[in-house]
Write a structure and sequence with these properties.
Layout lengths: L1 H8 L13 E5 L8 H4 L2 E5 L4 E7 L4 E7 L7 H6 L4 E8 L10 E9 L4 E8 L2 E6 L4
Parallel strand pairs: 1-4, 5-8
Antiparallel strand pairs: 1-5, 2-3, 3-4, 6-7, 7-8
Length: 136
């Protein structure tokens, strides 16, 4: 798993990061066999996005894996269109970023069992970012 994580991370453009990164999210192709139980330190299912999410600890931040469970998932079409694990988003803790000072479009908010926090997704400079809220 460490080799996979290293190869995914080394391809990223960190010049676009906004502050200290909490985690980097990667989308898993819908057809790829990925065992969260074996591959991740922690994982859970998030009903509102109909996906399984899990993470491993990287050197400086967490590495999150996301896989739609069914064709009804909001992530299904993107996941179906890729053939390898692909970058999805950078995530930041609310205390480390002033989201109101950025020109963003809010996508959605929900509680995630993965971090026991409310998270909010935004579109910023044509890329998805996630803010992990300080409060549940």
């Amino acid at each position: 798993m460490n080799e996979l994580c290293d190869s995914l991370i080394e391809k990223l453009d960190f010049s676009k990061k906004l502050s200290k990164i909490h985690h980097v999210g990667f989308l898993i192709p819908y057809d790829l066999d990925f065992d969260f139980n074996i591959s991740c330190e922690n994982f859970c299912e998030i009903e509102i996005i109909d996906a399984t999410v899990g993470y491993v600890r990287g050197k400086d931040f967490l590495i999150e894996f996301i896989k739609p469970r069914t064709e009804k998932s909001i992530l299904f079409l993107k996941s179906k269109s890729i053939n390898k694990i692909s970058f999805d988003h950078f995530a930041y803790e609310e205390k480390n970023i002033d989201i109101n000072s950025l020109n963003t479009i809010k996508i959605m908010s929900f509680y995630t069992c993965l971090f026991n926090k409310k998270v909010t997704f935004y579109l910023y400079n044509n890329e998805k970012i996630e803010i992990i809220n300080d409060n549940i």
